[in-house]
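Researcher: Quick one. two chains, 890 residues in total.
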Amino acid sequence: MSAPAELLLETRDGSVVAQLGGEVDMSNASYVRDQLLASMSNEAIALVLDISGCRYLDSAGIEVLFDVSRRLARRRQELRIVMPPSSPLRRVIELTEVHTAAPVYESLEGALSE
Amino acid sequence: MLRRKADRVGGQLRVRASQQAALASLGQHALGGMELDELLDATVAAAARELDAGQVVVLERTRDGAGMLARAGAGLPEGVLGGVLPADAAELARDLGSRSVIAARIGAAGRDFGVIQAHSGAEGHFGDDDSHFLQALANVLGAAVERSTVDDLMRDSEAQFRELANTTPALMWMTDAEGDVTFVNEGWLRFTDGRPGGEGGGPFASSAHPDDRETLLASWTETLRRQDDFRHEYRLRHAASDGYRWVLELGTPRFAGGEFVGYVGTATDIHERRAMEEALRESEASFRELANTAPAMIWTTDDHGLITFVNQGWLEFTGTNLHEEMGVAWELGVHPDDAALTRSTWQEARAKLAEWELEYRLHHHSGEYRWISDRGVPRYAGGRYVGYVGTAVDVHERKTIEGRLLEVYEREHAVAETLQRSLLPERLPPVEGVELAARYLPGARGSAIGGDWYDVLERPDGRVALVVGDVVGHGLRAAASMGQLRNAFRAYGMVEASPAEVVARINRLVMHGVEQVMATVLYLVLDRETGEVAFSAAGHPPPLLIAPDGARFLDGGRSVPIGAADPAVFREATALLPPGSTLLLYTDGLVERRDAPLEGRLEQLAAAAAAADTELDGLCEHLLGSMLGDGDPGDDVAILAVRPLPVAERQVSLTLPAEPGSLAVLRRRLARFLHATGADELQRYEITLTISEAAGNAIEHAYGPGDETFEVEVSFDEGVLTARVRDSGSWRDQRGEHRGRGLRIIEDLMDEVTVERHGDGTHVTMRRRLGRERAA
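Model:
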């Protein structure tokens, strides 16, 4: 059994908005990473990854955030993360210093207005 | 080996998306009425493609159950397809040289069609998701098999009716519920040499004599409105004589499972009789002469009711002579079962000197009894009553057809009931971690077989899906639609996590299907560890939560019924079941009653539930008893009660295979345990995360994916949670950035972490105080 994760993709204001739902762990992390990278066209400015709907994210999932950020940077594209203040993931995101790899916004609008 | 495994895990979600698309397409074909054989081929092809299987085969259980017929297949050696194989699947696997096999049963409880198998030459080729996918395919096939069986039966009934109708010389017709003609037999077409109906309203208006049309139409409209038996004499166009002949039109309302669906009727040529009656009134003198040349059966009596004369037509029918019919002797020819009624009808009429008419069986010269329609009118000579004169016609064909038609309809009813029963097992399959009870009560006798159903399904993510539904309508169609919907829920419930999405997908299927089906459905997914439920109520009454402190209905998640609109918005709502609570799903037959407002009935249900037994079967009985009383319910009723079992111990102890898939299993078990400790959402998340990180480490440095396992023990004592993760590998402190982060998470989120390296592996022990916020 692999963890159930869901990705909803749309393009908004020249950026790709990806809503990540469900759970990400080592059973599906690399797949989520591949899908995120594949969703980025050359024209897109940024990948806005909204993890508001994510119920579970472990270190394998955190690793995806770092990895995607690194790969996008090489293509001169940016990863932005959306996480509401109330998210149970907040502490882990802070603890692992995800902000050093990608800016973290409290709302989707905030991330898109950059 | 390790590499392939990793690839498989990585690719699993992708596979899932593609499998979902394949499943959706097949589901659409199945509901769209694709022929079973074609669908089997498509399914086999999809399974081979999506599972990357060497061979796929659908085996149908033979009637005697002794063997399996290879009904469809892909990649099979020549000669296998169409052959009967031994029921033992292992033998086939040997023949195919396959090294891994997965199989899924096709068909619902009580109806075992067979099995679909996927084979591969590679070991360990199939994963859990593959099995789930194959089962979802099998469920689609199950729906199609049910449908095709019902279709065959329907076709049989219909074909049987047409065949019957067309072999009889009688004139027959059928209408739908609106009174429009849907069928006339060849006899009718021969007689009128034209088409019935048209001209709005009555089915016969266009062929009726212009002088008779108005009264015919009025009589028909009134009869249709009251759904009464129809009876009318009028002149019908007669092609052979290029004129009109008197016919007696008789129609019987048809009911399929309690619902009015139209009329079936016959027209009998009574022209001779009418002509005779008119002639009789005009000329008493020429009576005998007339009577003996008429093709009808004619008789007269004296003023005591004793037969004084029967004509040639009567004698030809009975094969007797005049003497044998005189006086009361004729009664000897009446069928014993009809004798009493014939005599009493006749006597009562005579006492009042009234006209009478009766259909009864009379002994025919061929040796059998044939149905005749007999009618008598009093005769007067110079104002004085002198006896009766009567005419009779042979109506045997029509009566026989009626009887056999009735049989056809009764059979349909029986089939619907059987189908319904077979789809609703008396006992639900046991589901770990929850207690279940269900009841189904058919509607009042003579009314209807409904389309109510309930079902329980274990989802691949460990949650339990529950569904209660009610297909609009009654009878065979409703029961068949119920079977299809039930299987559609089984298929989509496997692959779709969101209740609203499951309902939306099924709505799309139904809306694009050939047949219009409408149903109200409550679909609910329960996390048995946390007590979290998510549900979608499509036109269906809300679930009832029976908590230790009282009963209340769960709000939200409401939308239109399935099959009502496309596109439609389907909502979902969530709720948390307090420990020890029970959830009740039911169909509207439990609460809806014509003489009481729904609001009051719902309150009554909540009150009855709050006062009920805590044992689930007792609860069901109590609710049925207090809501329905002792009588039969008007509509059918289905109820389903579910209760997550309490977490008994203050400890979790698990041994799991050292593979990534175990993490999700671990999280589910932890969720249930942590929920019981009273930890808040953040604490639950963080503890689950740290234990999973330690487990992830154990999985990563297990020697191989083979037989390696790891153990997790979690206990909660005096406000302190202690977790131990043990593996048989060696702990690696710094293996890449990612693992470093995992370790950091563990150390930061736990109050205390110790790592012990033993000869046989590594033990990680972690502690955290719960209940109040930790010191920073």
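Chain A touches chain B through 30 residues (CB under 8 Å).
Researcher: Thanks, that's what I needed.
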